[in-house]
Structure formats: C-alpha cells, structure tokens
Amino acid sequence: MQRHALLIVENNSVPFDRRVWREALSLHRAGWDVSVISPKGSSYSKGGSSVSGEDASYEEREGIRIHRYALDQAEGGPIAFAKEYVSAFWHTLRLTLKIWRKQRVDVVQVCNPPDFFFPLGWMCRMRGAGFIFDHHDLVPESIAERWRGAKGALLRRIALIAEWMTIRTAHVVMATNESYREVAMRRGGVGEERVVVLRNGPPLDRCKRVDVDPAIRNGRRFLVGYLGIMGPQDGLPLLAGAIRHIVRDLGRTDIQFLIVGDGPMRPWFADYAKESQLSDYITLPGLAVTLEEWQRYLSAPDLCVSPEPPTRFNDKSTITKVAEYMAMRQPVIAFPLTETRRTAADTAVYVTPPTEEALGDAIVSLIDDPDRRANLAERAHRRAIDHLVWEAQEQALLDAYERAWKRR
Fold first, then answer.
1. Do both 114 and 184 map to the same domain?
2. pTM exceeds cut of 0.85
3. Which of 68, 221, 232, 240 is a Cys-bridge partner for 254, taking CB atoms 3.0 to 4.6 Å apart?
C-alpha cells in the first residue's frame, strides 16, 4: 500500500519554497503519495500554474497535490504576527482534517517558522502517524533581533517554549545544518538518533549556465550579483552601502549590480538607489520565478555576494544562496559566518570587518583579479557537486521518513 506524506509550510507558498518543493518531489519519486498545505502566493502562477493566483486553492503539479489558503502576511508588531499565526493554524488544521477524511496520512512534516504547529503533532501521534519537524529557522534568535527590551525578552521566551514543544513532539527533527542539529539536541533535549541533517542545495539539473543577453550589464564591463530573499536579516543595507562606496568613493563606474529577489527590503533598496543617485548602476528585476530566469540571472555575474551580517541568527543559519552561487560556478563574497564557512569552506572570500567599506573593497579586489575568480569558481563548483546539491542530500530525507514511519 502506498504511504501518504503531508507537508505543511506557513511562511512561503509552494512550489516557491524551493526546499519544501524539492522534498515533495523526492518523496514522490521514492513512491510516496504526497500532499502539501501552504499559503497562497500571488506570484507563483507565473511559474506555469494552470490556475490564476488568488483562485489557486488547489492544484496538482508533477504528481503533488497542493492545497492553499489565503493568508495576509504580517507586517508590524507582535499582534499582527499573532493574528497571522492564528489564521494560518486554523486553515492548516481545517485542510489537514479535510485531507485526512479522504485518505489516511502516514507521516506529517511541519516546517517552521512559526513553531506553533506542535498540536498537529499531538493529533498525528494519536492517529498513529509519524511526525517530522523540518527546522528551517531559529525563531527565538529572529525575535531577539527584531524586538528589543522587555517585549523582546518575553516573546523570545514564548518562542523558546514553542520550539521545545515542537522538537519534543516530533518523532524526527530534520535540521538544515550542524548548528541546528546542536540546537535540537541542546535546547530540545532529544537524542542524536532523532535528528537528521538535511542541508539545502539546488538540484543538479538546475546547475547549468546559459547564454545571457549582454544588455543585462547596462553597458558596463563587470557585473556583481545578488539573488535571494530581501528580508531584514539579509544584509541589504550593507550591500547598498558597499555599492555607494564602490561608485562614489572608489570611482568605479565600470561595475553594474544585479539585485534579484523580493521581500520587505526591496522597496527600501529601490528608494535608496534613487535617493543616492545610483539607480543607473543597479538592476532590480524582481523575483526569479521560473527555472529559466534563475539560470539566466545566475549565469550573468562575474561574482556574487552574500551580505548577511554576523548576527546570532545568521551565524547559525545556512544561507541557501551561497550553495546556489557555488553550484553555478560563481565566486562568492560573504562575511565569515559559522555555517557559511561550513558551506563554502575555502572556496569563498570572507570579509572582515562587517562594514560597507570592507565589503565594497573586497568586491573591487576580486573583480580586478580574474585568475582568482576563475580558481574560486571552479573549486566552489566542485564542492557544490560533491557535497551540496540536492542529490547529495536526498537520502537523508528518505532516511528521516523511514525513521518517523517506524517510530510512529
């Protein structure tokens, strides 16, 4: 009898959450029947959906059944986030019960943030299903950086309790890296036999460079790229300041900057470019939705930047874009975060101190050294193919599901 897996994600739409979509496809190829619950996203229909954005409550794509619900993403204070999470939990519970009435679910996987889905884990265990926690983000650290003072301390304490409850409820925790594995064991108090490290990495068939329209360089000799989410933790102010330093202080007018992505910092970045009179040096095409767009944008630059600053959250988190840069033969410049070093090892340029000027100087230095760029690119590509691409991680996913299935 074919086993049925249900994957639940709240903070992104599927298939645009690349990790969750890769997991769903891998399970389907391994013989699992797969359902997914996620919020709706207005942009995912550009990826080839047969249904339009806000009406796409249900879709079958590549053998995966996707159930979506309308959700207003929170902006602002804790009350707005509480409203979002209550709404998300209600819709997720409603859809879970709807799916379960039609077909037995054997393993349920919940992805954070948030960490408030542990009651679903209780329900799974009572119904004899396996429960997996896919640990994407360190929510307590994220809260500590977003809110300070007594309010931040209280919210972080609540988040730590929710994280502990979710980890303890799970039959298996899938950690994105070694730091998250240590968190599951230290803060969650679970044994190493209940934690599986499943790193993020692009599928091998995506890692192919393609021809690029030279117009993307805007007539300039060099191109520096950034491709990823544009959130508060992603270091966009540092990158913006580095661009200003390169153009204004160093007088380098031969470098164009390609900033691909979307998120709450994108409007800020566009306003900064305009106010600083740097718009002509910065290309902001938006989100790379299709595979063709992703490959075209990552084939174009001479080097790519991962400007996340050294915070507690960033230091322990895997920066997905770094592995993607490496797989696409791009030299990488980043700050020396613990997990970034574990991803790139000695194939990246690490910038100290974490300032706009140091980042800008490192970009210019590497731009002016084509031999070093070529050497870094080839070594990074080899490391990505050997250790980081999804095919090198897929077995860990299947092992986690087998453990959850047996422990249920």
1. yes
2. no
3. 221
Please report the pLDDT score of residue 82 as a whole number: 82
What span, in angstroms and rounded, lies between the C-alpha atoms of 51 and 297? 26
Same domain? 239 vs 351: yes
Tell me which residue of 317, 354, 312 sits closest to 333, measured CA to CA: 354
**E-only strand ranges, 265-359:** 282-286, 303-306, 332-334, 348-350
Q: 179-221, pLDDT tens digit by residue? A: 999 999 999 999 999 999 999 888 888 888 999 999 999 999 9
Q: Are 262 and 229 in contact (CB under 8 A)?
A: yes
My answer on whether 51 and 168 are in the same domain is: yes
- What are the structure tokens assigned to 96, written together? 């879970």
Range of the domain at 260: 205-388
CATH of the domain at 378: 3.40.50.2000
**Rounded to an integer, what distance in angstroms lies between the CA atom of residue 77 and that of residue 332?**
35
pLDDT tens, position by position, 45-65: 444 444 444 447 899 999 999
Alpha carbon distance 151, 158 (integer Å): 11
d(C-alpha 72, C-alpha 395), whole Å: 35
Res 381 pLDDT > 50? yes
Q: Examine the domain organization and report whether 145 and 290 are in the same domain.
A: no
